[in-house]
Every structure is written in C-alpha cells, then in structure tokens.
Specification:
The protein has about 280 residues and is an alpha/beta fold. The protein contains eight helices and ten strands. Helix 7 links the parallel strand 9 and strand 10. Bound molecules: 2-amino-2-deoxy-6-O-phosphono-alpha-D-glucopyranose.
Amino acid sequence: MEVIIFSGADQVAEYAADIVGQMLAHKPDCVLGLATGSTPVAMYRCLAQRYRDGALSFARATTFNLDEYLGLDSDNSHSYRSYMRRELFDHVDLESERTHLPECAPGEDPRAVGPAYESLINKCGGIDLQILGIGRNGHIGFNEPSSSLASRTRVKTLARRTVSDNHRLFDSPAEQPGMAITMGVATIMDAHRVLLLATGEHKAEAVRAAVEGSISAMHPASVLQAHRRVRVLVDEAAASRLTLVEYYRRVHTQAEWIAGEFSVSGVCDPWFQDGDG
Ligand code: GLP
C-alpha cells in the first residue's frame, strides 16, 4: 500500500483533489466512486473551487456514492444525497442523471437496490477511482466489522459505534436511521484505483489496523492491503500509530523522484500511466 503522510488535513484534501483532477483530465468520462462523512468535505471544497477556476470539469463524468441511509427521503437534509448536493453536486457541472446513490424509493424492496446498483456500475464500465473514508471501527462505506470480504451492494445494519459516532449529525436519536444500503467490500475492491483519506488522532488506530494489521472481516478496511492500486492519505495525527512512518516517507520521496525523471508527457502521475481502467 502506498501511505502518504501530510502535515495536515488541508494538505490531504489538496492532494486528493489533485488526484481527482488528474483522473478527470486523463479520462473525462471517468466513473468516480464518492464518499460522505466529515473527512472528504475539504476535498469537495477544493474541487468546487478548481471547477470555478476553470481547472477541471465533471461534465462527462459519472458518480456512484458508496452508501445511503435506509428510511430517509432523498430530500431529507441528513440523506447522503442532500450531503452530496451541498458539498459537491450543486457547485460543479456534473449531470444530475449521472450521479448515483444506492437509494431506496418509498415502497421499494430494499433488497432489490443492491443488485440493480451493481448492474449499473458494471454497465458504466466499473469505478475508475474510488474515494474512501474510514470509520473508527474500520468500516469502509457502511461495511461494518464482520462484513463479508466478498460482499456486494446490500442492506447493512449499522454498528452501535457507528450510530453513536454519527449522533452529532442528527437533531434527535429518533431521526437517525439504523440501516443503510452500502457498496460491498468486493464492490470497493473492484474499483481500479482507491484513495483512502483519514485525518485526526481519532482515526489513528483504525488506520494502523487497516495498513499494518492482519486482513480481517473484523476490520474491513484491512482488505485494501490486497488491492493493487490504493493510496492511503493521512495527516500526521492519523499516522501517529503507524510503525513504518519513516519507510513510507522514503518510499514516497523516491517514487516522486522516479516519476519526475521518467514522466510521460502530459501525465503527471504513474497511477494514470499504465492503462487499465
Ligand atoms: C460514515 C460513512 C463512511 C465514512 C465514515 C467516516 O459512517 N458511511 O463512508 O467514511 O462514516 O466518517 P467521518 O469522515 O465523518 O469520520
């Protein structure tokens, strides 16, 4: 895994926005996998600013969000659809018909949403770049500990810890859903590239277990160790429990040197040079 350590959360956001910008430049009709939560907010602000500056365009892109609460109307201010509108969709030139979340319409069988979402992702050619945050219990999307590593988009019951971590975002406990529809672990693993963002001391243990722990369904993010192209972007605080910090820094410096020496014209990052996806 490539672990890149930044001085602060702003630097993580800028770098993540650089990668999304390069993805859009390399493949304007790319498929982006998007995440919610507090962590990617700063990245979305950078992207909106860069769009206003004319530095990038989402006009031909398609997006698939990781997850959506079950039992909230998409217009509810706490839905992830509303979050995405607030943080990104309303500020850039994405076509709304090409923005997807695993939403369950009133009266629809929630068990039917996952297979349809998977088919749509496949029909669009798969996810070129997946953005991820990480829960304090190691969840990615809403794949809670014990999620099958082979799981696909489906209904998940939220862990108590996840519900309590997200209390602050709801006005009352009665409003907070206990279930969601989330991409599965295997759906995430199928993405061609993955960027995991984590900032703050409260994520340090989850990051350590994901990067340096054993691969286990009890810490779903750890399965990313088996992904070919994943970058873990962390600030100093989130990196504070990693044991190989010095090594990760050296790897990054040397990779940047090689990229600088042997870059292919017009393509800035080796991630985008070798074709597949
Ligand atoms: C939520 C989301 C995840 C997100 C995680 C961390 O439960 N479903 O996709 O990564 O929480 O959120 P935050 O960035 O707010 O810590």
